[in-house]
What we know:
alpha+beta, 6-stranded mixed beta sheet, 4-stranded antiparallel beta sheet, 6 helices, 32 strands, 33% strand, globular
Amino acid sequence: MSFRKVVRQSKFRHVFGQPVKTEQCYDDIRVSRVTWDSTFCAVNPSFVAIIVEASGGGAFLVLPLHKTGRIDKSYPTVCGHTGPVLDIDWCPHNDYVIASGSEDCTVMVWQIPENGLSQPLTEPVVVLEGHSKRVGIIAWHPTARNVLLSAGCDNVVLIWNVGTAEELYRLEGLHPDLIYSVSWSRDGALFCTACKDKSVRVIDPRRGTVVAEKERAHEGARPMRAIFLADGKIFTTGFSRMSERQLALWDVENLEEPMGLQELDSSNGALLPFYDPDTNVVYVCGKGDSSIRYFEITEEPPYIHFLNTFTSKEPQRGMGWMPKRGLDVSKCEIARFYKLHERKCEPIIMTVPRKSDLFQDDLYPDTAGPEAAMEAEEWVAGQTAGPVLVSLRQAYVPSKQRDLKVSRRTLLHESCPPATAIAAAGPTTPPPTPPAAPAPTRLSAPPALGTGPSAPTGRLEEVLQEVAALRALVAEQGQRITRLEEQLSRLENGHV
């Protein structure tokens, strides 16, 4: 009877993480020390924003992605808040608009210049005032333009129309304690929250009602988080009664028992989940950890499948996550994190190893693009729509090597070189085997072939000789490849 372990097949089994080179990091950044379980970093295809230490108020840096290296201490910041900034979030429909929540009880929305900041930005486009305590959570609506959610330590969730600076919905009395996290569903019809009372709630903001609730989703007293998955399920991170860190998957239709539950370790840092709806992979980063674990969510039990762990030496203070449209698809990059150290920000690239240079359709299905599916007024009127999808194939840039190959091939096909040029190039080609005529003579002969009566016969013999020579060359190279493969196999198996 065979006891050979069966390995689950997955295209993401061999995903590996790799930090970029030192010169591609953002150095000398004083990352915020505020005690709040936020990511402290927000990224889009144009900018990286990082909450930093600031005297006399709150501030965050906004750096163009290409501005790597040491960041000067005098580099301008976004500094309009009078208290420390707790959370920031880029607008999914405009890469130059970012919202921030602060201890000064306000939400501010900022317009970043196209080339980044050249002087400190102190004047927001709009200030949203409605919370009575500090604002710790900011989340843009995924499909409706200018709709922004904010959650404060007053246990109130507010939904704003940023375009008109008006409060659309005020959700009070739904949370008896501090809100730890908020996550919109893929179409923005619902959102889920994790609360200090250990409950996970699914809320319909337009009706102001709790659609579903799971009490004591995680037994531990430490902070937990909940995120919506693309198929409507909920993924949570939290702690057990024995303070062990846990992951769980829940079906909104039946919250009695989790579909899957896994215990990780006994560290005490809050687990921050990042979800890719295109690949159904969840990345889990613990605050204070030095690792990123990733899991694939599938339809078959046990539903949560551990893939691998990226480990580094330095602990992370926070983490940014690049949207799919900002990744380098030519290198099979499926995720990019921006890891915050105490004094720098280090990009980490997650790659699926592939041999082919071609665009990988299975890794890059159509993803959410920068276009809003509807206006704020349409969403308020009751409409619901999924994100407007775009293909990443247009973003695919072939490697330089591939460009050179293609251009050479195109040149050879488009233009037929003159006979003299071919004759000159003859000696550089691999010498054919003895049965064939010498390369220079054979290639320079055609101009004179049309003169004699036996021209067609001579031409046919020459072509046949060339075909025979090429066949012999191919056979010889095939044997050589076989020998090399055998040598490689012996080396890999430890045989000299």
